[in-house]
Design brief:
With 198 residues, the protein is an alpha/beta fold. The protein has a single domain (2-191), classed as 3-Layer(aba) Sandwich (Rossmann fold), CATH 3.40.50.150. The chain has 7 helices and 7 strands; from the N terminus they run H-H-E-H-E-H-E-E-H-E-H-H-E-E. It has a 7-stranded mixed beta sheet with strand order 3-2-1-4-5-7-6, with helices on both faces. It is globular, with a radius of gyration of 16 Å. The relative contact order is 0.14.
Length: 198
C-alpha cells in the first residue's frame, strides 16, 4: 500500500467526496439491514469521512478498517466511530460482528480479493449486507486507470458488475448490481451462511 502512504496527506485534505445526497443514498441501501444501534464496517475507509457521515444519517456505529497508518490516525473517532489498523484479507474481528460491510472505491486495491470476500462473509452476520461501490472495467477509461495503478504497484483488480456478482456468489454473498453515473456501479449483496442456524 505504498501509494496510500505517500498520498495520505492529499487524501486527508481533498478526499471528502461525499455530499449529503450521496450519503442519503448509501444510507438508504444500508437501512434495511442495520437496526438502530447496529454496527457497520467500512473496509478501506481511509480517514473516515464516509463513516462519520453515515453515523450522522443512521443511528449506528461504524468501524473504519484500513491498512494505512497515515490515514487511520486521522479518523475522527467518537462514541460511534472507531478506527482499526488492519487489512481486508485478515480482519481482526469476531465472526458475525457486523450488520453490514461497506467498501467504497477500495475493492480493486485488495491484493487478495478471495481472502477479502471470505473475511467479509465471516464478519457479517447471516442476512447482513455487503455494499460495494466500484468502477466497471469494461469502460476504456477504467482500463487505463488500471494500467496507471499497476505502474505504481497497485493490483487494480477491477471487475465488471456481472463479474463481481458472480465472484461474490462464490463466497455465499448473493446480490445484484445497479449502474450509477459514469463508469460507477453498486453491488448490494446479502450474506448467506447455510451452516448457520435458521
Amino acid at each position: 500500500m505504498g501509494f496510500f502512504n505517500w498520498s495520505a496527506p492529499a487524501i486527508r485534505r481533498y478526499g471528502e467526496r461525499w455530499n449529503v445526497d450521496d450519503v442519503q443514498v448509501i444510507v438508504s441501501w444500508l437501512r434495511p439491514f442495520v437496526p438502530g444501534g447496529g454496527h457497520i464496517l467500512d473496509v478501506g475507509g481511509g480517514a473516515g469521512g464516509l463513516a462519520r457521515r453515515i453515523t450522522e444519517a443512521l443511528p449506528s456505529r461504524v468501524t473504519v478498517l484500513d491498512p494505512t497508518p497515515e490515514l487511520v490516525k486521522h479518523v475522527e473517532t467518537s462514541e460511534r466511530v472507531s478506527a482499526v489498523l488492519g487489512s481486508a484479507e485478515a480482519m481482526p474481528f469476531e465472526d458475525d460482528e457486523f450488520d453490514a460491510v461497506v467498501v467504497t472505491d477500495a475493492f480493486h486495491h485488495f491484493r487478495d480479493c478471495d481472502g477479502a470476500v471470505s473475511e467479509m462473509a465471516r464478519v457479517v452476520r447471516p442476512g447482513g449486507a455487503v455494499l460495494i461501490l466500484e468502477l466497471d472495467k469494461s469502460h476504456l477509461a477504467i482500463r487505463l486507470i488500471g494500467i496507471a495503478e499497476r505502474l505504481v504497484g497497485e493490483p487494480a483488480a477491477f471487475f465488471t458488475p456481472e463479474g463481481l456478482c458472480a465472484f461474490m456468489a462464490q463466497h455465499k454473498i448473493e446480490g445484484e448490481y445497479e449502474r450509477l453515473a459514469g463508469a460507477s456501479y453498486r453491488f448490494l449483496g446479502v450474506v448467506r451462511k447455510p451452516w448457520a442456524a435458521a
